[in-house]
Write a structure and sequence with these properties.
mainly alpha, 7 helices
Length: 215
């Protein structure tokens, strides 16, 4: 059936984009952990590739909807793919933001106070992987689990805020450094938010239930 073939192709394209985004999240977190300017620059320079792929997938989805006028589960799948596609592109944007912050951190050298982002970064990467797994396997339980993991990332962001706030009380230099340090935690937290949105779209795709905002 022509429609099913095109749906299968869109699913493959979403997974291709997902793999591209996963690679960039992995690279930019490595750049952050290692204070690696070259890796950060690579992530920033590759943003157009993700943008172009996102536009291509959206056009394919709209074309299938227009030509085949799908209903029920097929329509939900395509609508969810458009939204998941957009969430992945926005994750790509956040990796660029982190890359730019890493470059600024590197320009300040090595101040004494450094917030450890490893737990936050690793948990966010795991969420992204699991969200794509839930999409591939149409796994509602896994998608629901990701929503819980998002709360854990939020908590680490609050810890980063408290850490930076405490440091700023006594810091007499490198103020910009510490502000950038907090903003990085916000960017990572936004990646987790977009990942959670993907999981919620998977739930809608499978069950037809809108779970955003705990509806």
């Amino acid at each position: 059936m022509r429609l099913q073939k095109e749906i299968d192709n869109i699913k493959k394209e979403i997974l291709t984009l997902g793999a591209m985004v996963e690679k960039r999240v992995d690279k930019v977190t490595s750049a952050l952990f290692e204070r690696n300017e070259e890796t950060a620059k690579e992530v920033i320079a590759s943003d157009n590739e993700i943008d172009m792929k996102e536009v291509e997938i959206e056009e394919d989805c709209l074309k299938v909807i227009a030509l085949h006028q799908p209903v029920a589960a097929d329509l939900r799948f395509l609508v969810s793919c458009i939204k998941i596609n957009n969430e992945l592109e926005r994750i790509g944007d956040q990796t660029v933001n982190i890359g730019q912050r890493v470059l600024k951190l590197c320009s300040w050298g090595n101040p004494e106070h450094i917030f450890d982002y490893r737990t936050m970064g690793e948990k966010t990467k795991e969420m992204l992987k699991l969200s794509l797994d839930s999409f591939v396997n149409l796994d509602v339980e896994l998608a629901a689990r990701i929503r819980t993991m998002d709360d854990e990332v939020d908590q680490i962001k609050f810890e980063a805020y408290d850490y930076v706030k405490d440091v700023l009380r006594t810091a007499d230099s490198h103020i910009g450094y510490f502000i950038n340090m907090f903003l990085i935690s916000r960017h990572i937290e936004r990646i987790a938010d977009h990942t959670t949105n993907i999981a919620e779209e998977v739930i809608y795709m499978i069950k037809g239930e809108i779970v955003r905002h705990n509806l």
